[in-house]
Amino acid sequence: MKRLASLMLVLSMTIVATDSSSVLAATPVPDGLPAYQCAGDYVHMVPLDVELGDYGQQSGMTQTESFNTGAGANGTCNCPSSINDYSLFTATASLPETDGWLKLNENVSARVWFYIYGPGNVQMPFYQRRNAGRTSCSNTATNSFTIATGSRGKIEFRIDKGILGESRFSGELAKLYWQVVSSGVGAPDYSFPFSTVNANIVLSSSASCTFEAGDNITVDLGEVTPGQLAEGKPPGGGYIPRQIDLSVNCNNVADTSASHLEYFISAAGTPNADGPYIVTTMPGLGVAMTDLSGNLLGLGNQNSRMIPYHNGRAENLVQLYPTLVPSEGKIEPGAYSATAIVTVSIP
After folding, report:
1. In 3D, which of 275, 285, 270, 268 has the Cα closest to residue 223?
2. Is the per-residue pLDDT at 2 higher than 60?
3. HEC-encoded secondary structure of 293-305
4. Do 86 and 214 lie in a common domain?
5. Residue (of 306, 203, 318) closest to 258 by Cα position
6. Does one domain contain both 224 and 88?
7. Is residue 7 in some structural domain?
8. How far is the C-alpha of 97 from the C-alpha of 105, rounded, in Å?
């Protein structure tokens, strides 16, 4: 089902006065780190746990929050020879990205800015952006630094689709790479990030819909003889199709937010996955689902039905009856069963 969401984020990090604060001792360089590249292991974790309200007020909402380590970001650099130069920073997206927006799930997107000393917050992705502070690095004395760049930034979260129930995301958003040289260097080695931004979010919504008949409905289709069964119509001998109520009531979903609700049926179909009959445990026997006019209802989300929604309710009554399935053999006496899942969403 589509889910509803409003967004608020809490993140944390701080500022250091300059872009480098040297540690006056040589630090072991990670194996494989390219010349004049710096590696770090700081991971910014952005937690978010927000209770949302009415469905119709969510889509398109944004919330921007800052993150900050509070003490700069640490890196170790591979400097084969002494150097005193500006640095280049590259940021990459860890998820599919369109115009800077990362798609976290069907409901939520986000975009990330990394702070670079000099330019300030720069939206990722970007490639080899130069900072405004020099770093003095060598392989004998100083190759470990605490800098402001990469230690802070901001994230903007956006709700793309309203949330019913709950929407979650936990994972990586972006990485930052540091090269301690201002020119004449190739691309960074993406095996050695300097700083990483992760997010762990839970957006829960008070908007919800429930079936009036409950979450599980058991329907007894009764007893019929093989001779009563027909293909594509109810059994003979006065059989009455069983009517079930699939109506739903919704909370915090205003009529202005949804004029219709979308229903679809998930079940094993016969003669194929999109077939008109629901498979039963007895070969040759299926279950037909129709509207009250007897029109057969298809299976799968491509055969969904739009049901009018008004005053917090959508009324949907359907009928079920057993039917012969073409070319699946002789019907033998015995018990049978079938299972189907009904899903309701806001289109």
Report:
1. 285
2. no
3. CCCECCCCHHHCE
4. no
5. 306
6. no
7. no
8. 12
Take residue 210 and report the two structure tokens written for it. Answer: 């429930």
Domain containing 213 equals 209-345
Question: How confident is the model over 233-284, as pLDDT tens digits?
Answer: 899 989 999 999 999 999 888 888 789 999 988 886 654 444 578 888 888 8
What tokens does 336 get? 């049978």
SS3 226: helix
Domain assignment present for residue 6? The answer is no
Which of 160, 185, 205 is the C-terminal boundary of a domain? Answer: 205
Residues 6+ apart with CB under 8 A from 146: 16, 20, 21, 23, 71, 72, 73, 74
Kindly give the pairing relationship between strand 285-290 and strand 317-324: antiparallel
Q: d(Cα 163, Cα 106) in Å, to the nearest integer?
A: 10
Rounded Cα gap, residues 337 and 287, in angstroms:
9
Chain segment 97-121, per-residue pLDDT in tens: 999 999 999 899 999 999 999 999 9
